[in-house]
Structure formats: C-alpha cells, structure tokens
Amino acid sequence: MKVKCISENKSITFLWGKTIKNIYITFLPIENETINSFSKRLIDTVNRYNAQIVKCDIFGNRDKYSEFIHEIQSIEKKYVFPVTWIHSVNDNNNIITGAIIRGVSDIIPETIFLESAALGRCYEDEFFRYCFLGGIFSNEPYVKPEQNAENLFHKIEKLLNLYGMDMTNVVRTWFYNENLLNWYNEFNKVRTSFYESRGILGKILPASTGVEGKNPFFTPVISSVEAFKPKKSGCGVREILSPMQNQATSYGSSFSRAVEIFTPFERRLLISGTASIGENGQTLYWEDINKQISHTFKVVEAILNSQKMKLEHVVRCIAYVKTKEYINNFYDKLKLLNIINFPTIVSVNDICRHDLLFEIELDAVSLKK
Question: How many CA atoms lie within 13 A of 60 on its CB side?
Fold first, then answer.
C-alpha cells in the first residue's frame, strides 16, 4: 500500500511492505527558520511515524552543518545516521533549502561507523539487503582532485564490505564536486577506471547524479550511495534505457539513465540526474532555460511512461538550477503541468556542462496489483 501525505513545508510518502514500512520525506524550511527550529520539526516528524532515518541529504549553507549536527544530537542521541550536506543558498531568508529523508519503521537498522563517523545504515527484508551511505569524502588536502576521487571510491567500497556487499550491488550514486566544471572529465575517467577494475562495466551501472556542490569539509567531492543486494528469485535490479537519449557511456560518463528495483509487490524507478541532452549527447536549447526545463521533463516523462508510470508516481525529486533566478522558471513549469505539491527541493548548482542550466532527478514507485 502507498499513502502520500502532503502539508505545508513537507511531503511524506509511506510504502507498506510485508514486514517494513518505507518512508520518503521531503522537508522544507519555514521562512526565516532557525537551525534549532528546523531540526526539531524534522525529528518530530520522524518520531510521529515511529521511523528510523537511514539517509539524510540536506541542502543549505555549509557554515551551518556543525550547528545542525549539534542540534540533532542534543534533541535525542539515538539519532545516528549519515548526513550528506550540500552547500546551497537559494533564499537569503533561509539558511536551509530543504532536506530529503529516507526512513524505515518496524525495524532498527544497523549503523556503519568508520573512524567514529556514522556513514551508513543497513537493514534487510525478505527481498533485499539494503545499505545507505552518506556524507562520504576523502580528506587528503595535498592531492589532486582526481586522486581524491579515487580514494573516495575505495572508501565507498570499504564501507560496503563492512556489510557484506561490494560495488556490484550499488544501484544509485550522488557525487557533488566542488568546482565541477574544472575537472569533470578527470572525475569521469577515475570513475570509469574504478568501475572497470571492479567488473562493473558491461553489467548494470548505477543511476547517478553528478553536479557542482561545496561541502562542509572543503573537500573536492562528497558522495552518497545506495546499494541493494537481492536475496531471492523474483527480486532484482535492471537497467532502464531512456527513449529520448543515448547511453551516457557513449560520451564518457559511466552511469545508467535509470535503474529499476523490483520485487513481486513493487517497482522502484531511480532516474539519474537528467538534463536537456539530445539523442546524440548534444546540449539542446543552450541559451533558453524554459526550453531546457520543458525538454528535460519530456525526457523524464518518456522514461516513466516506458515503465507505465507517471509523474504522480514520484516520491522524491531534486531539481538543480544554474542560477537563483531560474528557480521560478521551474515552478512555472510545474504550474503549466498542473502539478501541485510535487515532492521537490530546488537547489542552485552548476550542472556538468557550461551550457546546461537545469537538471532533475527523481524516484518513482509503482505497486503491483
């Protein structure tokens, strides 16, 4: 059963499994809200549904990261979960843009620690073993960004190994690279080389997002990861092609356009960061934000429709715009599509090309009848 609850400043979707309830929360700040108030509202919301946070992604001023962690731990010390903090300041009246929470209830997830930091939470049901990693970075201040990225991949692998998983189980990645446009090609080479060394190329590549993003630790890149390991037949992971775009591997980026997680009871579609890129890999409408947004939605809807889903199946969404002025263009598009209360955070970040002005990523869920 799927239930969506929408109210001012938050959207919550519940997915009832046979033994575990999965929860998606999109949490937005109230105007002029303090870190203290935001933290308390967030934890109150999670407590109301007797949930455990397995992953928390926050977009906001990176100078407030330490204050947020302090507030969370002072509210209730049992809240030990991975936090990925991406610097984004969209509104001068708000120090936080928003938070995306993944949670579960009816189970206590295992927490993965590395060097005293909580970097992962893991659990299992009758279908999969699940591992959610966040706030992962490699802190070597004197190495080149690409070497830092390679060390990051090794750290991700080490964390997965602690829960009996490996890189072949990864279904979704996020990479937020500081000064992305200066070294995105080098990053892609590192990623491809690492995946090749682990036997992932030629198999199912993870869905992924790679955009510019500063972090509180001032490292070249920070990452979060989701890994699912099937436990029985009838459950698995498969790559989903984009009807309107070619494979990202054709221009040197090692990720899938989308990945589907399926069980006998549901399908989860994880759509990668998607932008106004044509079927031959070229940027389309490079000077027009409205046309880029419209084309991107056509691409996303084509992927959804290919799997008999619609935008109404979306349970989580992040939109990235190149400048603050483009935020209203995105919301204007939602109005044109007659989409109300879409579970979205809008963040200001450079996209992976100079001429891309907009990118969107999302998760959608369809329950089998």
Answer: 28
* Per-residue tokens: 122: 């893991």
Alpha carbon separation from 225 to 57, 170, 291, 369 (Å, rounded):
11, 7, 31, 30
Residue 74's contacts (CB-CB under 8 Å, 6 or more residues apart) are none
Find all residues with CB under 8 Å of 108, minimum gap 6, and list them.
Answer: 52, 123
CATH class of 1-108: alpha beta
Mean pLDDT by 10 residues, the chain (369 residues): 61 72 90 91 89 95 93 80 89 80 92 91 94 94 91 97 96 96 95 95 93 95 97 94 88 90 94 93 92 97 96 95 94 91 91 94 89
Q: Report the first-to-last Cα separation within the chain, whole angstroms.
A: 10
Q: Is the pTM of this model over 0.90?
A: yes
Contact assessment for residue 268 and residue 238, using Cβ atoms and an 8 Å cutoff: no
Q: Residue 302 in 3-state DSSP?
A: helix
Helix axes 327-336, 289-306, angle to 10 degrees: 50
3-state secondary structure of 40: helix
CATH number of 116-232: 3.30.1330.40
Name the β-bridge partners of 367: 266
Query: Which superfamily is assigned to 246-369 in CATH?
Result: RutC-like (3.30.1330.40)
- Per-domain residue ranges for the chain? 1-108, 116-232, 246-369
- 3-state secondary structure (DSSP) of residue 250: helix
Q: Are 235 and 127 in contact (CB under 8 A)?
A: yes
Which value, in Å, is the radius of gyration of the alpha carbons in the chain?
19
Map tokens 């989903």 to a residue: 240
Nearest to 59 by CA among 27, 86, 77, 28: 86
Q: CA 34, CA 277: separation in Å to the nearest integer?
A: 39
